[in-house]
Each structure stands twice: as C-alpha cells, then as structure tokens.
Design goal:
The complex is a heterodimer of chains A (113) and B (115). With 113 residues, chain A is mainly beta. Chain A is built from no helices and 12 strands. In chain A, strands 2, 5, 6, 10, 11 and 12 form a 6-stranded mixed β-sheet that branches. A 4-stranded antiparallel β-sheet of chain A has the order 3-9-8-7, with no helix packed on it. A two-stranded antiparallel ribbon of chain A has the order 1-4. Helices cover 0% and strands 52% of the residues of chain B. Chain B is built from no helices and 11 strands. In chain B, strands 2, 4, 5, 6, 9, 10 and 11 form a 7-stranded mixed β-sheet that branches. Chain B starts with a strand and ends with a strand. The chains are: A mainly beta (113), B mainly beta (115). The interface between A and B is medium-sized, with 25 and 28 residues.
C-alpha cells in the first residue's frame, strides 16, 4: 500500500543552521507530494507541494524536489529561524486517491537562538 | 477569503456519549475530508465527501460517520465514545474537481477529550 516515511525527530538546530528533513514514499503510479507544518495548538498549514517528477516546490525559504528515481521529497531550508520551530509532515495523495492524504509520522523541529 | 472553519474548537465528553463536529469549507470548495490526529497513531484519514457523496473512507469503525450538505458544509459524528477517541479532529477542504494537484487546506481542528 501507499506510505510515507520521515526521519525521526526531534531535530534541534541553532538559528541560521541548514535544515534537511528526509522523506521517502511508497506509492503506485504518480502521487502528488506535500509538506505541511503544524505550530503548537494549531491545525495544518500547507508549506509546499509538487505534482510530478522533478518538480520543485518552494515557500518561505523552504524547498523540496520530487525525486521519482529515489522516491524522495526531502525538505530543506538554508537558514532556519526560531519561528520555524514546529512539526513538519510529509504527505502524498496517490493517483486515483482523490483527496485522501497519507501522512508521515511528522518531524519535530526545535530551533534555538 | 475565509479559511476552513471548524466548530467547536474544544469539547469534553463522557464515555458512551456521542459527538457531532462541524466544518465549513472554503467558499467554492466542494470536497471536504476529515482526519484524526493522536500522539500514538499520527494523522489518519477518516473519510472524504464531494458534492454530498462519500468518495473515500478510511479504516475506522462504523461509530464514525459523516455527511455533507448541499452547501458543502460537513459534519462528522462519533457515537458511543471511547477513551481512545480523544484526539484532534481536522477538517480539510479542496476544490476536489480533479484528482491531481488539488491543494488541500486544513482547519484549526476540534479537540475532543473523552473522560
């Protein structure tokens, strides 16, 4: 079946450090891929998405590239801020899956000044 | 434009009771889906509705049900509540008119505590 695997957290970084959160997926066909972010006590916010191989999604300094050959969608940011502290979820919608998102377990990021 | 609105935001129920949660999607969105978030199981898909029809359903017992109205607003109901139903219930909406590439927007969620 379809699934998403994320690196386990928590990830602890100093401000201005480089961030990578790994995400790999298993899916039939050509899924759409997403990164969502959840701040404490809040719902999910869409961070970025990619709908086909080699697409790069980007938003607020975050980037992720849809790599079909490695079935990956790693999240990166060149310089994190304290305000980026949150839980990050990688997710997919399989082709034919309508709007059913399949989520990874989430990775908690803590950024210290 | 207004985002996805969920009510109530917080509620406490007793085991055996039932609960109804409400969701108003973004204006113009016809697809509404529901997710359960718990520390142990993470984010799990409950069901999705499009134009009042359930289009997809997750692996939850029949105590969990939902519906969508003609104005796209949706409700979910949980009957005979169990302690394990304590969770954040998230509603999401999208245009839903095509399978691929839809952007799915989430509400703030309804925090349910079962005691």
């Amino acid at each position: 079946g379809n699934s998403v695997t994320q690196m386990e957290g928590p990830v602890t970084l100093s401000e201005e450090a480089f961030l990578t959160i790994n995400c790999t997926y298993t899916a039939t066909g050509y899924p759409s891929l997403f990164w969502y972010v959840q701040y404490p006590g809040e719902g999910l916010q869409l961070l970025l998405k990619a709908t086909k191989a080699d697409d790069k999604g980007s938003n607020k300094g975050f980037e992720a590239t849809y790599r079909k050959e490695t079935t990956s969608f790693h999240l990166e940011k060149g310089s994190v801020q304290v305000s980026d502290s949150a839980v990050y979820f990688c997710a997919l919608v399989s082709s034919g899956g309508y709007n059913k998102l399949i989520f990874g377990a989430g990775t908690r990021l803590a950024v210290h000044p | 434009k207004a985002g996805v609105t969920q009510t109530p935001r917080y509620l406490i129920k007793t085991r055996g009771q039932q609960v109804t949660l409400s969701c108003s999607p973004i204006s113009g969105h016809r697809s509404v889906s529901w997710y359960q978030q718990t520390p142990g199981q993470g984010l799990q898909f409950l069901f999705e509705y499009f134009s009042e029809t359930q289009r997809n359903k997750g692996n939850f017992p029949g105590r969990f049900s939902g519906r969508q109205f003609s104005n796209s607003r949706s409700e979910m109901n949980v009957s005979t509540l169990e302690l394990g139903d304590s969770a954040l219930y998230l509603c999401a909406s999208s245009l839903g008119d095509r399978v691929f590439g839809n952007t799915i927007y989430f509400g703030e969620g309804s925090w349910l505590t079962v005691v």
